[in-house]
Amino acid sequence: MDQAALKKLPRGWKSIPSDLNSDQTAFKGVNWGKAMMWIFLLSDTFIFSCFLLSYMTGRGSTVLPWPNPSKVFALDFMGVPVPLLLIAIMTFVLITSSGTMAMAVKYGYEKNRKLCGTFLLLTAIGGLTFVGMQAFEWSKLIFHEGVRPWSNPYGAPQFGSFFFMITGFHGTHVSIGVIFLFIFSRKVFKGDFDSGRKGYFTSMKSDYVAIEILGLYWHFVDLVWVFIFAFFYLW
Amino acid sequence: MSDEFDKKIEAKADTIVDAGSVPSGSVPGIDYVPAHERPDQELYHSHSWWTTYVFSQDAKYIGIQYAITAIGTGLIGLVLSWMMRLQLAFPGLGILEPSAYYQFITMHGMIMVIYLLTALFLGGFGNLLIPLMCGARDMAFPYLNMVSYWEFLLAVLILLSSFFVPGGPTGAGWTLYPPQAITSGTPGSSAGIVLMLISLCVFVAGFTMGGLNYIITMLQSRARGMTLMRLPLTCWGIFTATVLALLAFPALLVGCIMMTLDSLLGTSFFMPAMISMGEKLSYDGGSPLLFQHLFWFFGHPEVYIIALPAFGIISDLISVHARKNIFGYRMMVWAIVGIGALSFFVWAHHMYVSGMTPWFGYFFATTTLIIAVPTAIKVYNWVLTLWRGNIQLTLPMLFALAFIVTFVNGGLTGIFLGNVTVDVPLSDTYFVVAHFHMVMGIAPILVVFGAIYHWFPLITGRMLHEGIGRIHFWVTFLGSYAIYFPMHYQGFVGVPRRYFEIYDSPYITTSTLHLNVFITIAALIVGAAQLLFLFNLIYSARAGKKAEKNPWKANSLEWLTPEMPPGHGNFGKELPVVYRWAYDFNVPGADKDYIPQTVPPSEVRSAKVEKT
Ligand code: HEM
Ligand SMILES: [Cu+2]
Fold first, then answer.
1. Residues 6 or more apart from B354 whose CB is under 8 A from it?
2. ipTM of predicted complex
3. In degrees to the nearest 10, what's the CA dihedral of B436, B442, B445, B446?
4. Domain tally for chain A?
5. pLDDT of B130-150, one tens digit each?
6. How far is the CA of A46 from the centre of ligand 2 (A)?
7. Which ligand is closest in space to the CA of residue B502?
8. pTM above 0.90, yes or no
């Protein structure tokens, strides 16, 4: 739908019945891929909710004491164990990468290829740093502190089970996002989004909207991290 | 046409944003349709035999691939049920080992629910009908759609491969409850269960890809003039079921992942401290109830994932074959959506005897009974659609009528089971088996048959053989009752479910044993009738009577394509333009007894149509 026509549609609450009553599209002027990503994220929200709710019930119903997160996750800094140090940095990096992602979307729509690609690359590097630090944290827990998915020296075995499963599942999301960020930044630099080059298997034309869609995913993954952070490290 | 209607159209014409292209042959001022909102979809054009028929990106082919795979897997489920029935009827012959019986129950249940019915209704009919009924060229993301099918096939293959691993497939029951599912002593507790869990995860992933397609296509890719409230109810049923699936499968996925870890890594998500064969297992502190909650948070919506498409399809069949508009269309839509929403709040009615707090049970009994309200509305509306209709006793109509009866039957026993105090003595008896087979086994299967008889000409251009079809109908319909009616009685006298043999015992009446033989004979006959049906499919696809265009004189867009069966891109050069809902049958003042959705008001000026 062209912009002029879109502008004439009702705004605010009135737009809901008007759009739902209309023909052709229910979300006016919204790209298919973007609508799809929102619905996928809704489904993914249910996955993470199920994980976190299971974690809460698991933690609630186990008979052994739950390990103290500020001890388990502490990092030695100049000989002093500082609680939450690594996690704070990881969280900071990931949230910063959301910022660079937003910049990439903005420059994408401005058709500023160089800056768009650069910011995508920065986002990817942020994500990679996050995954790297997570790998570091995992190996520290596994090799130095003897935490295993099935047991740990501190108390309830469910601690390691839920921790590795949920952060692992989230880390996989981040990694998939990083892969796509690299692919997309390459495509931006090559100019695919300007020429509207068609996909190899699909007949879809490349469009800068794809960067916004990837951005939605990326922000979602960040948001989920905030919940994981709160439930694992602060509770 | 009434004056009022003219005015309404004029009023609408004022709101025209820009006139757009007026479709050819329409009269300006009367035949108003909004302008195109988006450019035509660009399709992937296949170049070789492989990309046309095998790795097809055309939703129609993908739908057929889904349907054939699902039906093929369903046949395995059917054969398993014969074996079980033979064992139950003649326990002395030793047809099945106890462990094999458990394995067959499990595989039969899971295959029927997930790999047959879910895949067939959503993957099969969804792919075939949604783009056609919405007036779209294809699904929104054809490539993703193709991947969805191949993942489904992969899931089926993983599932079936469990027959060939050491220990065989899992025998945990289709509910897969831990701790027994992964504890030695249960058949297939090591390799079988893991393959089942992995297969389910793959299925969920594949389904998500397809499901996103169905939703986006229906929301964002409809024809000009096609409002949501003009869509056939089939679309609404499949759409709502897909939304349910996208929100319910996550719980299954999470449960499967956690149980896989319990089994492979020795975590204790679901596993409490246990002693097995005199040895303390390494598990400690997990919660088996948690799995039940996750499973049924998926499991109950799953019932409606199967039922809602069936509701939608049956509404269309009844309306077309009774030549009458569907009674209370909007009510039907809201009932579908309402049932879908409510279905997320009833899951623990499967857990009355699980040891969860009984207070929970009363909450869930209440919500369960509330769901009966929109469901009953739907049944009334079907009956009212038939009332004073011009009922054609065609094969689809016969199956539709059989569905209504069967669904009411299963629904009534559901009211018994929904109440905690009534359920407690009945749970885990054959009454439950009878109930769920009626409501989610036979009833949806009848819809599947009705739908195949109805849409077969659309797919192949030929009609299914009528005579064979009638034999198939009567044997299936009456036979199902011969199978399942006696089971209600068996349930009342306390025959337990999931037992591999019932011997004469003081607790169980002798009549049960005779009935078991009777039921088995009926099951074998019903099964044989399905072979007849398969023969009919193959025979008619090759040599059946050629179907004329729009053989049932229906109104919806799938029948209005330039060619039948529809070609690549569905609608030829120009996409259809829609002026009305799909139910304008026997409109007073019209010269024919049906007005297809694409007929503009100017052509049927004298008809007193409903405003849609
Ligand atoms: C004529 C066709 C069918 C026959 C003869 C049949 C027979 C059976 C038998 C003998 C059992 C085991 C009962 C027990 O020992 O507890 C069973 C269980 C089951 N069937 Fe069917 N069935 C048929 C069709 C279907 C269909 C179409 C569905 C689809 C929903 C279905 C779903 C199930 C389920 C979910 C179970 C429970 C499995 C479990 O207890 O874990 N069946 N069936
Ligand atoms: Cu239920």
1. B289, B292
2. 0.94
3. -140
4. 1
5. 999 999 999 999 999 999 999
6. 20
7. 1
8. yes
